[in-house]
Design goal:
This is 2-hydroxyacid dehydrogenase. Belongs to the D-isomer specific 2-hydroxyacid dehydrogenase family. Keywords: NAD, Oxidoreductase. Helix content is about 35%, strand content about 15%. The protein is of the alpha/beta class and about 325 residues long. The structure holds glyoxylic acid (2 copies). One glyoxylic acid binds near residues 53, 75, 100 and 288. The site of one glyoxylic acid (GLV) has 6 residues, from loops.
Length: about 325
């Protein structure tokens, strides 16, 4: 019997079509917020799935999906997937690292700059007709060049941001679960510091660390209190890293200068207190969103899925697996069990 693949969202159809020689594709024609029940129903009869950060999948969603062997997440972050439960179920997970690194680093740097130099606020002010006369003291921001950049989470994207910072003459401090090899630190011109020192010294702090329950609200009132009142905070990782009410308090109380946020805890809903503030730049989770990179992400996810289902040159060895443990005791193919 031919294998079947569920594609949870509209992705680039010409790229997804590469699955067709290998499997029947069940497409989703419109962007959809699938209920857990709908996800479980979609997974029940398929061998593989191509999903996005919008599609949470855990034990309950795969409980009645005996054929399912692989889930290819189109994204580098995979906190929408319960890795422990899916690994126990023998389901291989893949993600899309590397192909989005430079594009996402571009955006992180741009959002940090927009936040420091008040670009969104200035444009709104202009469009609102408030520019009656040029004035020397209008919308003054803080410098990026020569400032101290703090990077929390020094993976590939964090390193990409650090390399960009060198061109702006910034001093780069970072904190990470594990310290980078010295050669990489030198290449990134980045200095390792502990979490509190990072908070205390950064003029601009950028969050680029993967989300897990262990780092939920890592940036809370206590962390924000350690930052300079003149500092900016930029988040391109996951909304759950930041206590948004504490952030709104700090921004309102003059304890933090500004924030740039591409991700939100309840996205697509945005905390109304943040929406009401002038000194926040808000974007709708688009850091990896160049056309070329979004296409490359789908292409990598499709390659992963084709290999995970046992086809193509990498059969059985998908290029970017998340839980290689699932490969040790893979599920049997439907009909072979
Ligand atoms: C997007 O947020 C991703 O993790 O790729
Ligand atoms: C995270 O996985 C990164 O690429 O920085």
């Amino acid at each position: 019997a031919r294998q079947r693949v569920w594609v949870s969202q509209p992705l680039f159809a010409d790229i997804v079509a590469r699955l067709q020689p290998h499997a029947d594709v069940i497409a989703t024609p419109e962007v959809t917020q699938h209920s857990p029940q709908a996800i479980a129903a979609a997974l029940r009869e398929v061998d593989g799935a191509l999903v996005t950060l919008n599609d949470p999948i855990g034990a309950a969603e795969v409980a009645d999906a005996p054929r399912l062997r692989a889930i290819a997440n189109v994204g580098v972050g995979y906190n929408n997937l319960d890795v422990t439960a899916l690994t126990q179920a023998g389901i291989l997970i893949t993600n899309t690292p590397d192909v989005l690194t430079e594009t996402t680093a571009d955006f992180g740097f741009a959002l940090m700059m927009a936040t420091a130099r008040r670009i969104s606020e200035a444009e709104r002010w202009l469009r609102d007709g408030l520019w009656r006369q040029w004035s020397f003291e209008t919308l003054l921001g803080s410098d990026v060049h020569g400032a101290t950049l703090g990077i929390l989470g020094m993976g590939r994207i964090g390193q990409g941001i650090a390399r960009r910072a060198a061109g702006f003459g910034m001093r780069v401090l970072y904190h990470n679960r594990s310290r980078l090899p010295e050669a990489v630190e030198r290449e990134c011109r980045a200095e390792y510091v502990d979490f509190d020192e990072l908070l205390a010294r950064a003029d601009h702090l950028v969050l680029v660390l993967p989300y897990s329950p262990q780092v939920h609200h890592l940036i809370d009132a206590a962390a924000l209190a350690k930052m300079k009142p003149t500092a900016t905070l930029t988040n391109i990782a996951r909304g759950g890293l930041v206590d948004e009410d504490a952030l709104a308090d700090a921004l309102t109380g003059g304890r933090l200068a500004a924030a740039g946020l591409d991700v939100f805890e309840g996205e697509p809903a945005v905390n109304p207190r943040l929406l009401a503030l002038r000194n926040v730049v808000l974007t709708p989770h688009i850091a990896s969103g160049s056309l070329a990179t979004r296409r490359a992400m789908v292409a990598l996810a499709v390659d992963n899925l084709i290999a995970a289902l046992g086809f193509g040159p990498d059969a059985g060895r998908p290029p970017t697996p998340v839980n290689v443990d699932a490969l040790k005791a893979p599920r049997a193919r439907a009909g072979e069990g």
